[in-house]
Design goal:
alpha+beta, Penicillin V Acylase, Chain A, 2 domains, globular
Length: about 350
């Protein structure tokens, strides 16, 4: 079993970014090269040409959140990559939607099973829980970022080298998770890790939701949002479409296919086995939740370790893997996270 590596970074955006880049510079460079090569699939582009697409996205990131942009640039400088290369390594699963739209890219990711449970079914303190599935090459790069920015809440962010944040919870009781969506309307915009970290800078549910629905996005993601009372939402968001399911008396569950008519209309074609897998994970997660009258951290660990479909192992040609998993309870500020395939890993406890 491998413990989750933790990086504590505090202060100004520049200080946080430099701490990230200095701690993991070699890993960031390696991960960036892997993801840039994957981005080229199906195109006639060179590495420098695909990087030029990312360069065109810099202004959108700067305009969306200047502090996060400064953090990313400082991280890139410390890691000896360019800011455009930082967008590729950090925002890869949105970036490939952009490459698909502008250069007929074929790269694809099919990632994550996520659930939100209501307070009433969770002993008064509901959860947001998910696997983080990705190309197996991503697993060595997973770590926990304990970020303590000036003028914003402390947050714990499950993330990867070179990425400002992927899944997390802040000390104000705001939690955010994600599922990837594969869409046709990718464009020049902001990538999803910036959205995650901007959400984690908020102290109120409505402000956090606005970070998602008002973003000029580069690609498609489903964002899951929960606060420390009993508000939650599952938000399918693409550059041109948004659809929201609000938390009610039962759990919300989402995998990697669009479930609303407007987002289904711009969903890209995916291999049949990936569609079948996403549907199977949705059904299995829903069934496992129904098996428990009261949802607990332990029951959600069991769900995330389920070997029928949810816990994924590398299998050619796609080689997707559950690179980790996270369970968050905003009311109590407790988080449990596993590095690597959850059925083969221990969950470690954190609190914020």
């Amino acid at each position: 079993m491998r413990n989750m590596r933790v990086l504590e970074a505090s202060g100004t955006p520049n200080a946080i970014g430099r701490a990230h880049g200095e701690a993991f510079g070699q890993e960031i460079r390696s991960y960036m090269h892997d993801r840039r090569e994957l981005s080229l699939l199906g195109t006639s582009l060179s590495a420098s040409e695909v990087t030029e697409i990312a360069e065109a996205m810099l202004d959108a990131h700067r305009d969306y959140d200047l502090d996060l942009f400064d953090e990313m640039v400082a991280m890139a400088d410390a890691a000896e990559i360019s800011p455009a290369e930082a967008i590729i390594v950090g925002g890869y699963t949105d970036f490939i939607d952009t490459v698909r739209a502008v250069a007929d890219g074929k790269a694809m990711e099919d990632t994550c099973t996520a659930v939100i449970t209501p307070n009433e079914q969770s002993g008064g303190a509901g959860f947001l829980a998910q696997t983080w599935d990705m190309h197996a090459s991503a697993t060595p790069h997973v770590f926990m970022l304990d970020v303590r920015p000036v003028g914003a809440p402390r947050a714990l962010a499950f993330t990867t080298h070179g990425t400002v944040g992927q899944i997390g919870m802040n000390e104000a009781g705001i939690a955010v998770g994600i599922n990837n969506l594969t869409v046709l309307d990718g464009g020049i915009g902001v990538t999803w890790p910036f959205v995650v970290r901007k959400v984690l800078r908020q102290t109120a549910f409505d402000d956090a939701l606005a970070c998602i629905v008002d973003a000029n996005l580069a690609g498609g993601h489903n964002f899951l949002l929960r606060d420390d009372h009993d508000r939650g939402a599952s938000v399918e968001a693409t550059p041109t479409q948004t659809a929201i399911a609000e938390l009610g008396s039962g759990p919300l569950v989402h995998t990697n296919h669009c479930v609303f008519p407007n987002t289904q209309g711009i969903e890209a074609s995916r291999p049949a086995e990936l569609n079948a897998n996403s549907l199977s994970r949705l059904a299995d997660a829903t069934s496992l939740l129904q098996d428990n009258e009261v949802h607990t951290a332990d029951s959600l660990m069991t769900l995330l370790r389920d070997e029928s479909s949810i816990c994924r192992h590398p299998d050619p040609p796609f080689n997707y893997e559950s690179s980790g998993a996270v369970i968050m309870c905003p009311r109590t500020r407790d988080m449990w996270a596993a590095w690597g395939i959850p059925s083969e890993s221990d969950f470690e406890h954190f609190d914020v």
